[in-house]
Amino acid sequence: MVQNSALVSENTLRHPLSVAPIITIEHLVKRYKKAEQNAVDDISFSIAPGTLFALLGPNGSGKTTIISILTTTLAATAGSIQIAGYDLATQALQIRRQIGIVFQKPSLDLNLTAEENVRLHATLYGLYPYRPTYRLMPRAYRSQIASLAAMLGIEEQLFKPVKTFSGGMKRKLEILRSLLHQPAVLFLDEPTTGLDAESRRGLWDHLRQVRTASNTTIFLTTHYLEEAEGADQLLILNHGHIVSTGTPQEIKADLTRPMLLIDAHDRAHLRAELSQAGAPFTEEKFFALPIEGQQVQQLLQQITTPLSLVQTHSPSLEDAYLHLIKQEQGE
Question: Is the CATH code 3.30.70 the one for domain 257-314?
Fold first, then answer.
């Protein structure tokens, strides 16, 4: 069931008791120095292993603050966090070994080849001893690189300079690099920003392969609502508060309703007929009538005005999201 700030006293995303959460956050608070209010204000939720989890919210909602805290690059003001069985306050090093991160802005050395970027990362993580050439690296490293590159579709580009890569190729390389140490959780901070539609689609095809192959939990922040449609669980933030949680289907069902859209060249006559029939409607670009509880066929038969449009509209996640944010802003 979807939860929102008007209905619950504690914002908790619940999972079956038989599955230990991979991430548990309890009463998290973050207030920046000299700030008048909390950037993150006493939120709690948990995420089951293998979940594709999407964190949504407008600019300034607290998304970046939360992901920065979870990836150990920012300290919390209060609250407790457990990731992969480790406590963030006392075991940050162990948590870093359990997570992979793909930041919004690329963090690759453009003057190195793709493989050299990965080799440097592997050495810094202590996964393999450094060797000056790929051929001198251990066989396990070469096998792992080949497997990940094939899964992400970049095996032919491994030994080319990164400065020759497209934006989509750079993202794939960053994901390969972040998966090298087989993390339990992969954090993706707006990973497809700046990519064209084809590159975004291709990247998500490969991310689905990653989840299938390794049961990796993916923690996503994104401004593309269509990407969040495929999530197992959503959490929507506004002003540091959780305003709704649930599956995309639950959130859409809770916040929006299927509509019948109709229109006519003689809009005044159609408006009068709808009012006379007592049919609830809104009028913007078209006349919109809620389908639930309405005798649609009977209503259409009563209308004598020639209609220029008759179609049903199933709300998208974007419709639900915008509806919720407008509610929060009092519009």
Answer: yes
